């Protein structure tokens, strides 16, 4: 009889993520879902809809906005919020710069990536949010492989990788002192391939950036970056016209693209299966040092 | 190929070994040979290996991601790794083997279906081998794979392997939860019997490690008999369209639920019938573990988070007195009779006081220690607890979800113990 009672790995991952999302709503007073417009946060928001259906999301979405966005991301975000009748909070890095909370990097490789941490922590504090749901996956990066589903942050928003709470079975301990908060990662056990397969299975709509399109790009430090108003070209750099797509979408100044003609989900799945570079291999922010991600996470990055 | 991938099954396993018996190398090898490692990761490891003066590419660096681990060449915490073959998706809980990190091993084992125990062919079955096997058995892992590693260093000698098999079997007769044990001679460093059968050990008639992981049958591990549904969240849309909808959201812990089934809610004892089982993608005819669903009932009765929906002909007796095996995790405080904690069991939280420390287990000899009333870091043993609210529980060996709990320190909020109800 046990034969018929089995579900695929995607079904198991979905069920686990929904369980985590419901635990977050139940254990915290003011959770918020971090929504970047990237595929992982889109999948997470979709799962959140399923978790509480037919009711609305019991928490708002928060977008940490570096100001260096692809237009397509913002358009997608606004449509998504409208369709799901969700509440949106924008944590603005530009505001943090204007208020003198942070100083912007200068030079050709200037990026607002690191500044997001301040904007995020300020916004969490201002709204008294005690749990921030993130789309991080453990397969993305080696420091993330040791991350918990419920990741405790001290009153300064810091992560202490050597002193994490053990997580046993499916019992999650979200107890905290006043002023502390949690980062919660419902997609911890998903891989890039799982995400794409799930997007296909659930027919989830994605920003056009993920599919092959023509764009002006420039090669820098081995990666191709989209030419936008936010990056300053070096004198020797040449703008090329290429057929590309993005494997991850973040800040426009540090998200590299790959040459690709993958125009459909099936094409992308084939491409991911054959890929010999990690998706973060195109992220300039991870290349700064061997433990760049760990260092950023410790100070409160997501 | 994409459709094939959609139908894949999933296996969670944990790896335990002592310092230097090549556990990280074994995992690195599985990931590398199954092509789950990408070029940029390999490049980074290659660069680090050269920098450290390692002779081979040090595959351990693939799994040891934290700064302190790279500096000290050790693994600090449970790391989760992922790879897939066309048959299965695998989740590895990679846990360090140092004596001070028993808690990590317990954590990794708590979600695993299978445990790989590494034995160094030159050292044979040692105390740590027994300790790891004891923990796997305690956490109710049914499938063990004993990988006799570093066979290259004993000239791939069959008699060395056979000696270790005999020693382990003698010890394993005391592991009552383990259903099957498989022995595989390997060299993680060289890749012998990891993905492909090794040409260096033609005397070995079994399968490679990866083939075993892909095919081992785990369907029988699920409990489809005892219907248990811990309520996580009550869904009330308050919209015109769903005016009277009141759904009990949760994840089926075990057993099978169908619309029309008679149910009883514990601990209140209210009875009703299942009206529907719902998901955004449509109505569900049968809900079983590990599906997350919402259940509606025929009657409007008072149900909230922490309650459990079960069936009248198979209902556990709610209990406030609990006997349990625990593993103690804290290096800052100890556990003694009289100690008070928060106890978290399924979706319910209560307070608990330790009535009595029954005994501790010396996990190297498996002997009971009855004259030491205090649990320190990594101690395992049996206690009795009194809980402030009735727990709807089963014994851990029958049900991993409704038989497990954690203890939380009331001051620091840290998780200080894992508990398994006897």
Q: What does this 3D model show about the protein?
A:
Chain A is α/β, with parallel strands linked by helices. Chain A has eight helices and ten strands. In chain A, the strands form two sheets. In chain A, strands 3-2-1-4-6-5 form a six-stranded mixed sheet, with helices on both faces. A four-stranded antiparallel barrel of chain A has the order 7-8-10-9. In chain A, helix 1 crosses helix 2 (39-52) and helix 6 runs antiparallel to helix 7 (265-274). Chain B is of the alpha+beta class and 422 residues long. Chain B has eight helices and 22 strands. In chain B, a hairpin with a 6-residue loop joins strand 21 (404-408) and strand 22. Classes of the chains: A alpha/beta (302), B alpha+beta (422). Chains A and B meet through helix 1, helix 2, helix 6 and helix 7 of A and helix 1, helix 3, helix 4, strand 2 and strand 3 of B.
Are there runs of chain B of 5+ residues with pLDDT below 50, and where?
Answer: none
Alpha carbon gap, first and last residue of chain A:
44 Å
CATH first level of the largest domain in chain A = Alpha Beta
The CATH topology annotation of the largest domain in chain B reads as Rossmann fold
Tally of strands of chain A: 10
Q: Can you name the CATH architecture of the largest domain in chain A?
A: 3-Layer(aba) Sandwich
Indicate how many domains the architecture of chain B comprises.
Answer: 3
Mass-distribution shape of chain B: globular
CATH superfamily of the largest domain in chain A: HUPs
Backbone shape of chain A: globular
Low-confidence stretches of chain A: none
CATH domain class of the largest domain in chain B: Alpha Beta
**What is the helical fraction of chain A, as a range of percent?**
25-40%
The quaternary organization reads as heterodimer
CATH superfamily of the largest domain in chain B: P-loop containing nucleotide triphosphate hydrolases
Tell how many strands the DSSP assignment of chain B holds: 22
């Amino acid at each position: 009889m046990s034969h018929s009672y089995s579900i695929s790995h995607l079904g198991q991952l979905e069920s686990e993520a929904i369980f985590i999302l419901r635990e977050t709503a139940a254990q915290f007073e003011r959770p918020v879902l971090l929504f970047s417009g990237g595929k992982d946060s889109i999948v997470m928001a979709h799962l959140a809809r399923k978790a509480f259906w037919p009711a609305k999301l019991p928490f708002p979405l928060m977008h940490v906005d570096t100001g260096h966005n692809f237009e397509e991301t913002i358009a997608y975000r606004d449509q998504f919020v409208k369709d799901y009748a969700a509440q949106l909070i924008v944590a603005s890095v530009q505001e943090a710069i204007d208020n003198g909370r942070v100083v912007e990097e200068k030079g050709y490789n200037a990026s607002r990536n690191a500044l997001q941490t301040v904007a995020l922590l300020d916004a969490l504090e201002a709204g008294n949010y005690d749990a921030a749901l993130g789309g991080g996956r453990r397969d993305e990066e080696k420091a993330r492989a040791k991350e918990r589903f419920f990741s405790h942050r001290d009153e300064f928003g810091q992560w202490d990788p050597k002193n994490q709470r053990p997580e046993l079975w499916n019992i999650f301990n979200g107890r905290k002192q006043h002023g502390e908060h949690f980062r919660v990662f419902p997609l911890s056990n998903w891989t890039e391939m799982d995400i794409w397969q799930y997007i296909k299975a659930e027919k989830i709509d994605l920003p056009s950036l993920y599919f092959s399109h023509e764009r002006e790009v420039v090669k820098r430090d081995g990666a191709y970056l989209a030419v936008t108003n936010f990056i300053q070209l070096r004198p020797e750099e040449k703008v090329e016209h290429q057929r590309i797509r993005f494997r991850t979408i973040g800040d426009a100044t540090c998200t590299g693209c790959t040459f690709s003609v993958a125009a459909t989900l099936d094409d992308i799945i084939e491409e991911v299966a054959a890929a010999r570079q990690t998706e973060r291999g195109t992220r300039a922010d991870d290349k700064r040092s061997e433990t760049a991600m760990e260092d950023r996470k410790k100070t409160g990055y997501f | 190929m994409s459709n094939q991938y959609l139908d894949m099954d999933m296996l969670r396993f944990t790896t335990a070994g002592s310092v230097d018996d090549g556990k990280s190398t074994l995992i690195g090898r599985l990931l590398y040979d199954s092509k789950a490692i990408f070029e940029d990761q390999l490049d980074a490891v290659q660069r680090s290996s050269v920098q450290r003066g390692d002779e081979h590419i040090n595959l351990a660096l693939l799994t040891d991601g934290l700064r302190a681990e790279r500096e000290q060449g050790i693994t600090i915490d449970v790391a989760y790794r992922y790879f897939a073959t066309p048959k299965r998706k695998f989740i590895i809980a990679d846990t360090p083997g140092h004596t001070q990190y028993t808690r990590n091993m317990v954590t990794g084992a708590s979600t695993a279906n299978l445990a790989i125990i590494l034995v160094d062919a030159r050292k044979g079955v040692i105390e740590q081998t027994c300790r790891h096997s004891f923990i796997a058995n305690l956490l109710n892992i049914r499938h063990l794979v004993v990988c006799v590693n570093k066979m290259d260093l004993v000239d791939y000698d069959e008699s060395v392997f056979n000696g270790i098999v005999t020693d382990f079997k003698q010890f394993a007769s005391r592991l009552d939860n383990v259903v099957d044990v498989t022995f595989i001679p390997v060299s993680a460093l060289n890749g012998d019997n990891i993905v492909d059968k090794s040409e260096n050990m033609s005397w070995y008639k079994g399968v490679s490690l990866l083939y075993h992981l892909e095919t081992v049958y785990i369907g029988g591990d699920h409990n489809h008999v005892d219907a248990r549904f811990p309520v996580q969240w009550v869904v009330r849309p308050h919209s015109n369209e769903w005016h009277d909808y009141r759904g009990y959201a949760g994840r089926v812990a075990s057993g099978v639920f169908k619309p029309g089934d008679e149910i009883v809610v514990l601990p209140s004892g209210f009875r009703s019938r299942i009206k529907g089982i719902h998901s955004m993608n449509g109505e569900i005819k049968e809900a079983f573990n590990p599906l997350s669903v919402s259940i509606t009932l025929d009657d409007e009765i008072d149900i909230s988070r922490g309650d459990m929906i079960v069936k009248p002909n198979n209902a556990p007796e709610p209990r406030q007195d609990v006997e349990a095996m625990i593993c103690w995790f804290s290096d800052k405080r100890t556990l003694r009779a009289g100690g008070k904690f928060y106890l978290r069991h399924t979706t319910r939280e209560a307070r608990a006081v330790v009535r009595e420390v029954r005994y501790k287990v010396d996990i190297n000899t498996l002997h009971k220690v009855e004259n030491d009333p205090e649990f320190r870091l990594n101690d395992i043993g049996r206690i009795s607890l009194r809980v402030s609210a009735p727990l709807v529980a089963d014994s851990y060996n029958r049900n991993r979800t409704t038989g497990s709990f954690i203890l939380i320190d009331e001051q620091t909020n840290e998780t200080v113990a894992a508990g398994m109800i006897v």
